[in-house]
Design a protein that fits this description.
Elements: E1 2-8, H1 10-14, H2 18-27, E2 31-38, H3 42-48, H4 58-65, E3 70-77, H5 80-88, H6 101-105, E4 114-116, H7 120-130
Antiparallel strand pairs: 1-3, 1-4, 2-3
The structure holds guanosine-5'-diphosphate.
């Protein structure tokens, strides 16, 4: 049984499709072990995406991620990390396979609707960034 971190980004929260996206996780057999709506500060977003600090898109990424509230969740299930990444689709929604969350809800590589941990190791770090053990059931 794996756990992974999902973020429904500000564009998808503003579009009022939080429930539709969470339903896709449940329909695919992932269980919501924790969830909450958060407004990230600039320091939060910079820390969360620190691995991208040297990338040319870092400033845009941080300002987008603080442009409105996000919904962060811990998803649990067999093969959760990869299963979640498959449901999300490619980073650039123009390249995302039909039926994926990014193909259906994202507008651009910046406003791409969702984030998901890319490895089990990063999932543990990202879950710890947002949730205490007592918040996860
Ligand atoms: P992800 O794991 O699919 O979210 O992709 P990455 O970890 O590589 O990148 C993190 C986030 O940075 C992505 O979800 C995009 O929002 C943004 N991003 C990645 N690559 C680019 C890029 O080339 N240009 C821009 N503007 N944003 C990017």
């Amino acid at each position: 049984m794996e756990q992974t971190l999902s973020i429904i980004k500000p564009d998808a929260v503003a579009k009022n499709v939080v429930g539709q996206i969470l339903s896709r996780f449940e329909a695919a057999g992932l269980r919501i072990a924790a969830t909450k709506k958060v407004q990230l500060s600039q320091a939060d977003a910079e820390a969360f995406y620190a691995v991208h600090a040297e990338r040319p898109f870092f400033k845009d990424l941080v300002s987008f991620m603080i442009s409105g509230p996000v919904v962060v969740s811990v998803l649990e299930g067999d093969n959760a990390v990869l299963k979640h990444r498959d449901l999300m689709g490619a980073t650039n929604p123009k390249e995302a396979a039909p039926g994926t969350i990014r193909a259906d809800f994202a507008d651009s590589i910046d406003a791409n609707a969702v984030h998901g941990s890319d490895s089990l190791e990063n999932a543990k770090i990202e879950i710890g960034f947002f949730f205490a053990a007592r918040d996860i059931y």
